[in-house]
Design goal:
about 80% helix
Length: about 130
């Protein structure tokens, strides 16, 4: 009987072919966004802060760089990283208090995190573009 079970087991797991549930996808995005906020996010933010505070000329140079559309798009993506990480963190905090831990509630919470992160990014992006 054990021989039959061993033959049915997969030889390798291809994680790209496995369909993950929505809460797992949101959790993975939460980890990725947190990592990207840490590096290169923090060093770039500190460099921008240094340019802002160094002199009037470096502040104007920073404004010139930030007016480039490609840089604005990268900043918009970074904003989505931050807002998604914030919303998913609030969701995880609620899960720690056993709020929304049932399957249907977890799926709804995941949808809310994805929609709210994208919607907040869109609204703030419209305001700053």
């Amino acid at each position: 009987m054990e021989v039959n079970l061993q033959n049915k087991r997969p030889k390798h797991l291809d994680l790209l072919k496995i369909k993950q549930p929505l809460p797992a996808v949101v959790s993975i995005f939460h980890r990725i966004s947190g990592t990207l906020l840490f590096f290169p996010g923090i060093p770039l933010m500190l460099y921008g802060l240094q340019m802002m505070l160094n002199s009037q000329q470096s502040f104007e140079a920073l404004l010139d760089v930030l007016s480039i559309p490609v840089i604005k798009s990268v900043l918009l993506l970074s904003l989505w990283f931050f807002l998604h990480h914030l919303c998913a963190g609030i969701r995880h905090l609620a899960l720690d208090f056993h709020i929304g831990s049932a399957l249907a509630q977890a799926r709804l919470g995941s949808k809310i995190v994805l929609i709210s992160g994208a919607l907040l990014t869109l609204l703030i992006g419209i305001a700053i573009w």
